[in-house]
Design goal:
Blueprint lengths: L1 H17 L9 H33 L8 H17 L7 H15 L15 H28 L13
């Protein structure tokens, strides 16, 4: 929901800035502001929902993803390499196939809803993109968790390390 809200917000902002004609019989500025407000609302709800789900998972003892976006992006090549080698078996075998299928769908000019339809035409692409980003991010976060659990714990080093 966070990614989708952000995407709606960006579409609303772009509509507000660049679209001066009517959109479906409504002023472009009104559509842009509406999309921007809806995007911010959906993003905020997504953040709240994410925190509640994370808290519930921790209470149940389920693994939760770790790492920020940069760490997860850096872990993705290692994840794919370990999946291909068979060293990481926590990722379902069909997941990488679905990721490739989603990328092909996003790049392909063939869409379920044609992009020529204003706003509605990009929703199928947006939905696939949001699912892809969320799925890859979650898988990379879980991979990082497993990686960190398997590494031997070393004492902290650097300026802030205490003897």
């Amino acid at each position: 929901m966070v990614y989708f809200g952000g995407l709606l917000g960006v579409i609303g902002l772009l509509t507000l800035v660049f679209r001066h004609d009517d959109v479906l019989g409504m002023p472009g500025a009104a559509v842009g502001i509406a999309l921007l407000v809806i995007g911010i609302g959906v993003g905020a709800l997504g953040v709240v929902r994410r925190r509640v789900v994370r808290r519930r998972k921790i209470e149940r003892g389920e693994p939760v993803p770790v790492g920020n976006v940069i760490e997860r992006a850096r872990a993705l090549p290692r994840l794919l390499r370990d999946v291909r080698r068979g060293a990481y078996t926590d990722l379902p075998k069909n997941r990488t196939f679905l990721w490739v299928l989603a990328i092909v769908y996003l790049v392909s000019p063939i869409d379920i809803l044609p992009d020529l339809l204003p706003i509605i035409g990009v929703t199928d692409d947006a939905g696939v993109a949001v699912w892809l980003l969320t799925s890859v991010s979650t898988a990379a976060g879980l991979y990082l968790r497993k990686e960190r659990e398997q590494l031997p714990h070393e004492p902290p080093r650097g300026r802030r390390a205490t003897p």
